[in-house]
Amino acid sequence: ALPLDESNVAQALTEFAQSDYTSIMYNFFGSRADQGRRYDHWRGIFDSAWLDGRTIGVELRPPFDEKKKALLERLAMYLRARFPQERISILSVHRDGQDIY
Questions:
Q1: What is the pLDDT of residue 78?
Q2: Strands 89-94, 97-100: parallel, antiparallel or unpaired by DSSP?
Q3: What is the pLDDT of residues 87-97, one digit of tens each?
Q4: H-helix or E-strand containing 100?
Q5: Mean pLDDT value across residues 40-50
Q6: Helical packing angle, 6-17 and 68-82, nearest 10°
Q7: Quick check: 55 pLDDT over 90?
């Protein structure tokens, strides 16, 4: 298991951004011009991300914010599998406030 630090969280977010699931979500909710788009870095999906103790905070970029619940639930499952020794929380900050997963 990987230690929970900024470098490992950034790597895990990048791998999540490169996943087939994220590509499918973008193709479904993105514009026609961007069909088939893949991301090579976590900043393609998140405006920002940070680590505060055992909390990983994220802000989603459009169009991902349209289906934030499904995406963030999948992200939470992914990160908990990557860092099984930690009891992490995912904090999503958006225009209507915050959600914790």
A1: 94
A2: antiparallel
A3: 889 888 877 77
A4: strand 97-100
A5: 82
A6: 130
A7: yes
Taking the CA atoms of 4, 6, 8 and 13 in sequence, report the sign of the dihedral they define.
positive
Please, what's the b/e burial string for 77-99 (b: 16 or more CB within 10 A of its CB; e: otherwise)? ebbeebbeebebbbbbeeeeeee
Degrees, nearest 5: CA angle 33-36-40: 110
Question: What integer pLDDT is reported at residue 33 of this predicted model?
Answer: 46
Mean pLDDT of 37-43: 66
Cβ atoms of 30 and 37 closer than 8 Å? yes
Length of the chain: 101
Q: Which amino acid is at 36?
A: G
Encoded amino acid at 54, one letter: R
Eight-state DSSP code of residue 19: S
Please report the beta strands in 33-75, taking only residues with DSSP state E, as ranges in sequence order. Answer: 46-52, 55-60
Sign of CA dihedral 70, 100, 87, 15: positive
Model pTM score: 0.82
Distance CA 101, CA 88 (A): 9
